[in-house]
Amino acid sequence: MKLIVNGAEVDIASDGDTPLLWVLRDELDLVGTKYGCGMAQCGACTVHLAGQPIRSCITPVSAAAGKAVETIEGQAAGADLTAVQRAWLETDVAQCGYCQSGQIMVATALLKENPAPTDEQIDTAMAGNVCRCGTYPRIRKAVHLAAKLIATEAAV
Amino acid sequence: MSHSPMKAGLSRRQFVQAGGALLFAAECPITFANKANAVGGSAMMNSFVRIDPSNVITMLANHSEFGNGAYTVMTMMLAEELDVDYRAIQIEAAPTAPDYYSPLFREYLTAGSVTTGSTWLPMRTAGAKARAMLIEAAAQVWGVPQAELSTEAGEVHHSATGQRAPYGQLLESIHRLKIMPPDTVSLKDPSDFKVLGKPAKRHEGAAKVDGSAQFGIDLKLPGMLHGAIARPPVHGGRVVSFDATGALKMPGVVKVKAISAGVVVLAKSYWQAQKARGELAITWDRGDNDGVSSEQFYSEYRALAEQPGMLAEDIGDALGALSEAGRVIESVYEMPLLAHATLEPMNCIAQVSGDACTIWSGTQYQSNDQEVISRFLGIPQENVTVHRPLMGGSFGRRSSKKADFTVEAVEAAMGENVPVKIIWSREEDIRSGHYRPLFVHKMRGSLDASGMPDAWHQVAVGQSLMQGSKHDPAYMVRGIDIYSLDGCLQEPFGVFPYGTSYQIPHHRVESHNAPRIGIVPQEWRSVGHTHTGIAYECFLDELADAGEIDPLELRLRLTKDHARMNRVLRVLREKSQWDEPLTAGRGRGMAARIYSVSPVAQAVEVSVAENGDFTIDRVVCVLDCGFAVNPLGVEGQVEGGIAFGLGGAAFGNIDIVNGEVQQSNFHDYPVIRMSQMPKVEVHILPSDEPPTGVGEQATAPIAPAVANALFNATGQRVRRFPLSSQGFNLV
Ligand code: FES
Ligand code: FES
Known about the structure:
- The complex is a heterodimer.
- By secondary structure, chain A is an alpha+beta fold.
- Helices cover about 35% and strands about 10% of the residues of chain A.
- A 5-stranded mixed beta sheet of chain A has the order 2-1-5-3-4, with helices on one face.
- In chain A, helix 2 (about 85-90) packs across helix 5 (about 135-155).
- Chain A is built from 5 helices and 5 strands.
- Chain A has helices at about 20-25, 85-90, 100-115, 120-125, 135-155, and strands spanning about 1-5, 10, 45-50, 50-55, 70.
- In chain B, the strands form 8 sheets. Chain B has a 7-stranded mixed beta sheet, with helices on both faces. Chain B has a 5-stranded mixed beta sheet with strand order 13-23-20-19-14, sandwiched between helices.
- The model of chain B is unreliable at about 1-40 (pLDDT under 50).
- Chain B starts with 11 loop residues before the first helix and ends with a strand.
- Chain B is of the alpha+beta class.
- Chain B folds into 3 domains: about 5-205, Aldehyde Oxidoreductase, domain 4; about 215-290 and about 345-425, 2-Layer Sandwich (Aldehyde Oxidoreductase, domain 4); about 295-335 and about 435-730, Aldehyde Oxidoreductase, domain 4 (2-Layer Sandwich).
- In chain B, helix 2 runs parallel beside helix 3, helix 12 (about 530-545) runs parallel beside helix 16 (about 700-715) and helix 15 packs across helix 16.
- Chains A and B meet through helix 1, helix 2, helix 3, helix 4 and helix 5 of A and helix 15 of B.
- The structure holds FE2/S2 (inorganic) cluster (2 copies).
- One FE2/S2 (inorganic) cluster (FES) sits at the interface of chains A and B.
């Protein structure tokens, strides 16, 4: 089976029913994507599959065969962070940081769909992502900042 | 263990002296000069600071980073005195050696929000002493007086001649000239601070936005096997026998064996291990807890609360005053078991070779891990090496005195020649964890003629955290666990200078240690306050209501002799617009606690719908944490502390029925989500007092403040938690 992970084609040896999460983590050593619940309850494992945010813990790898998978490791181009990542840093969002890959992947997808979300839209889009450290106020702030960064950068 | 020993009431000068003693413990016998540690030309300037010739500065961190900001404040302290950029300091987890034990706990332990306070002088001194050696070296090499030298951005400067040298270039001279650390050194005056007291972003923040931060669960070692453990359905249960035929046929499975914790499946990958675990057929001995239930604990504890307990404090004559009072107000408060549910579940890698053992473990408590493992394996303590990665949250869970998730990995790794990594599934985390113990508090009170509290009688019943541990008797006073009465006592008790800032004339507090039954109690962010805060602050609210006195006004009067808390309350009144009326359906409540020695108070506004659904519209938090080392970090900890306490109060409940935990994952053990997170306004009071930690401070008052606000809005008192069990659903 082949996957396209962060733009590169890779061969997968794991059984087809293995959740994409564990293929990424254990077979491809892409451990930025996290395990938090294993049943689509926390969002820590969020990646993009064909551009859509999905919970990789309940997605069998076979469902991703031949499709583009984007993980947190594929966001920045080298030292060039994305606007969302820069906004996260600027806002000093992370505490333990464990949930933040998932948060950033969901926020990135949200801003592609909706470049200027309201607080309520942010709450709805990110309702599936748990942060046990309670960084929610800063996540909200960072999403707004990222929206602004994207808009200004698009304007130049 | 969890709290900072007595510091309140010390004058600034006494604190510095106390700090001097801490320094002694923190001072390092290792200097680069007497230790051949100068490999590759780098130098250990002292236990905490290593400089290498290319001017890379490394801090050996003796406190864990699990979101608490330890690495940020510690590098800030070092950077301030060493005149370097805190972000450029590399961090290495310090080895598990007595040199690195917390001077407060005399153990290698990060707990009780003490990191900031207890590293405040040692880390600055480490920086200042390293700097003094660099200055001395430059002065000798350049032949100029030390007084003419300054330091900036990792370099020593001589402005008169324009000479400058990066620290790394001076190491060779320090060696050659045999420069030793000075005995004493003066620290910067706070008015000269460039880093301390200024908002600073998280040291390891960058690694936490690109997925590169390495948590324990992320580590992979050559040849490593992955293990998943089938655990008994009841706490304290044991394996009788198991049939692994099916599991062994599953792909990737290498071995199945029984260990103390259950049956472990070892496989090539975690998913294979987890999947094969489902194929095991196990016969369990359900043990002594078979059949027990939370409801049974509540009723037993309620009955105990009617009996005289161990007497912790008896000021005035509370029993006499209550028997004579015209009106006695009585309430029983009941708080359930709570899981920590760190987002990174427990995990540990262990390798056992001969009489040596190495673990890779996200831990708050590595000296204890070392001790427990050495006892378990019968090997010398120094043969146990602990590698400590970052942690995806902890909240007390990773400070287990039993080192449960650590020692089981060691047991699983015994007889294997490779490292073994155990990961807990979320279900194991919720069902088989250690918990905030279930507590019942029986409260009785009466009022004086003016309506103020006159007599107070409290009986607390719950499992002790410290009983029978190695901290017994230090944290047990006459058999009473100081955490069972966290923040409830007016007089000094154990390591606590006092618990409450309130003065009630007749004040009697008793405690029962509920029987220990194999469900392991564990510190949970803000420890005893998680239940005592509810009992004390909600009941005080009941007395305020009975006496028809505004609850904030009542607390202002009760704290008139406690300047720090009184100031916090006055600011809260102003910042929360406390005296402005709210519209119908809305309510306002407050609570105030002393966490360790640091006062904090919160006012909460809620809106409640007919069906009990409620929102928290606003939380105003005023805190005094002494000198705020990193205001940006403090704010984050306050928001996080509130989210954590709020989740527990709103819907946290580990419910045991017929011996089995009923909850299993985030769908039935819900935690706060973004839409439920209130707007939090943080007011940090300026202070020149020594800093105190804030990781737990803001968790302490939030539950009672919300319950009091719900009462204010609806007239309904919640006395059994969580709120959701009483028809109040946070939306
Ligand atoms: S691990 Fe996939 S949603 Fe929690
Ligand atoms: S930052 Fe710790 S779980 Fe979100």
